[in-house]
Amino acid sequence: MTDNLEKLLKDGADSARLRFGLGSAYFNQRQFLEAIPHLQACIAMDPNYTAAYKLLGKALLKTGDSVAAKVIFELGLPIAIASGDKQAEREISAFSLKLSRDETQP
């Protein structure tokens, strides 16, 4: 799947949707480091792409970067709320809460 999407990107079909697709495909293959730059590019192209914030935060958590994940979740939550994306709002809130709990535990 990633080969076809990478070919589209190489051929100049860059878009937020393509970048999210690549990030999602790499994430699902547990290639979190490869997913991150595509999800970042997705957000740069479309700052209202709420699913990208959620998935980028999760990918950052999988790589052990909880500080960056928290920042992404904090950026994405108000966007999810403003856009009415209840699913992203719930999931981002849940991940943020888990991160906050983890920070307070010794």
From the structure above, extract its key features.
106 residues; mainly alpha; Serine Threonine Protein Phosphatase 5, Tetratricopeptide repeat
Provide the number of structural domains: 1
Alpha-beta content class = mainly alpha
Strand content: under 5%
Count of separate DSSP helical elements: 6
Q: Measured on Cα atoms, how large is the radius of gyration?
A: 14 Å
What is the CATH first-level class name?
Mainly Alpha
Q: Any overview of this molecule?
A:
This is Tetratricopeptide repeat protein. InterPro entries: TPR-like_helical_dom_sf (IPR011990), TPR_rpt (IPR019734). Pfam families: TPR_19. With 106 residues, this protein is mainly α. It has 6 helices and no strands. Helix 1 packs antiparallel against helix 2 and helix 5 packs antiparallel against helix 6. The protein is globular, with a radius of gyration of 14 Å. The N and C termini lie far apart (42 Å). The model has no long low-confidence stretch (mean pLDDT 92).
Brief overview:
The chain is mainly alpha-helical. It has a single domain, classed as Alpha Horseshoe (Serine Threonine Protein Phosphatase 5, Tetratricopeptide repeat), CATH 1.25.40.10.
Give the arrangement of secondary structure elements.
Blueprint: H1 2-10, H2 16-28, H3 32-45, H4 50-62, H5 66-83, H6 86-104
Helix pairs in contact: 1-2, 2-3, 2-4, 3-4, 4-5, 4-6, 5-6
